[in-house]
Amino acid sequence: MAAAGRLSFSSITALAPMVRVGTLPMRLLALDYGADVVYCEELIDIKMAKCQRVVNDVLQTVDFVAPDERVMFRTCEREKDRVVFQMGTADPERALVVARLVEHDVAAIDVNMGCPKEYSTKGGMGAALLSDPDKIEAILQKLVAGVSIPVTCKIRILPSLEDTLSLVRRIEQTGVAAVAVHGRLKEERPRHPLHLDFIQAAAEAVSIPVIANGGSLDLVKTNEDIEDFRRTSGASSVMLARAAMWNASVFRAAGPLPLETVMEDYLKHAIRYNNHAFNTKYCLCQMLRDKVESPLGRRVQAAQTSADISEALGLQEFYQQTQELLQARRDALHGGGPAERLVMDGDVTTMVVRFERREYPPHITPKMFLLEWSRKEKLQQPLYETVQRSQDRSFQSIVTVEGKRYRSTLWEKSKKFAEQAAAVVFLRVRGVPEGRIGEEDSGLVCKRKREGRGGQAGGGEEVEEDGSNNKRRVFDAQRGVSV
């Protein structure tokens, strides 16, 4: 940090912006291991401009939420003074709108001027800006004048050294705090050699910090290599993308950690901050690289939810404890109201629900109420899919109703209880009666069933009230086979 409290880009090592990788869990992991600065993935200005800033008291984060309720950017206090928000933009006015939206929750703003992928270059963003220096200047000047935090940009080199140096000098004149230089042309890919001479010349041509980028494949494999890359490039600072994605402990001065340890550390952040399961899975597969077909890799690939991923890495107890902690916060904030309890885990709506048999009359179960409700609504019968955890033989079930999936995050002692818990989740999410003692009679379950004369065994045990056409499936969570 600079003396005035502003982020300094001199002599730092940074996590580079990476699409789908630079979300909150990876950024926190990099900080854990010693990165000085972390960049978020490129976020497009048009989408961000529509977001609302929401304080998430449960996760203790600040979320920028799109109109479709998708969280576009999530950050937290831990990274506030070291996270750089990178945007894709080709419009000075819109860029300023987005920068002002996030400026009090991040340490700096960066403009992507180097990404060669179509999603970035379309509309004149990313590497497309390299051919329009006037627009580069207009965007950067607008941001520097309009926000209270440092502004930077990230570029690729141009075909000639003369043009590259002309561009970095022009960028310096806008008042930016630093410029990151990826030492490849926009047409080149990681397999192509890095043009170190261009980075060296750029560093000599300007007085602001130059951040060297692009050395992951050949130049940076260990923490010691970072300083070598800084020295040979002549740059003030170094930015790592793929080397950090493969094993973020490359930032550790004490040396690398085993990949499995890094994956577990990453997953703990992902669980703690409710990262989308598909994004978590993607990042873990990037870490595995050529080990993606190993037994661990196959378990990760087969996982569909955060609970599944936690099971694959042996962190189910941490997952369970975290869900209970988050639920306790929800209850404290909202009085435990059912509508406040749901959390999306991929495409599954989850709640922390334990099926307590004593809370229901002897011949009444939530599954009965769900089945009767489905019949009343003229829907297909609910479908239950149940998995069994190998180490303690406990069960967890997902119920599918109207094409949507619901489950409890808690594991139950029996398959029947797991299915009941899943039914409870659906009923509470939809506000449908579930048959608990003291609940007003909804009329969903007829008097004959309430009195135990219709297909129920003694003592309240259920006898396939789903109906014979609904074939429930149970899978061994470890082996992935039906049992």
Task: Throw out a few tags for this protein.
elongated, 36% helix, six-stranded mixed β-sheet, 483 residues, alpha/beta
Secondary-structure blueprint:
Layout: E1 13-15, H1 24-33, E2 37-39, E3 43-44, H2 45-48, E4 52-56, E5 61-65, E6 71-75, E7 83-88, H3 92-102, E8 108-113, H4 118-121, H5 133-146, E9 151-156, H6 161-173, E10 178-182, H7 196-205, E11 210-213, H8 223-233, E12 237-240, H9 242-246, H10 259-272, H11 277-288, H12 295-302, H13 306-312, H14 316-334, E13 343-345, E14 348-351, H15 366-376, E15 383-388, E16 395-401, E17 404-408, H16 415-430, H17 447-450, E18 473-476
Parallel strand pairs: 1-2, 1-12, 2-7, 3-7, 7-8, 8-9, 9-10, 10-11, 11-12, 14-17, 15-18
Antiparallel strand pairs: 4-5, 5-6, 13-14, 15-16, 16-17
Helix pairs in contact: 1-10, 3-5, 6-7, 10-11, 13-14, 15-16
Kindly estimate the percentage of residues that lie in beta strands according to DSSP. 15-25%
Low-confidence segments, given as residue ranges, are 336-340, 450-483
Radius of gyration: 27 Å
Order of strands, main sheet, comes to: 1-2-7-8-9-10-11-12
Structural class: alpha/beta
CA-to-CA gap between the ends?
57 Å
How many β-strand stretches? 18
Major beta sheet summary = 8 strands, parallel, barrel
Task: Give the fraction of residues assigned to helices.
Answer: 25-40%
Q: What would the average pLDDT be, to the nearest integer? A: 88
Based on the structure, what is the oligomeric state of the protein chains? single chain
Shape: elongated
Number of helices: 17
Please characterize this protein's 3D structure:
With 483 residues, the chain is α/β, with parallel strands linked by helices. Helix content is 36%, strand content 17%. The strands form 3 sheets. It has an 8-stranded parallel barrel with strand order 1-2-7-8-9-10-11-12, surrounded by 6 helices. The model is unreliable at 336-340 and 450-483 (pLDDT under 50).
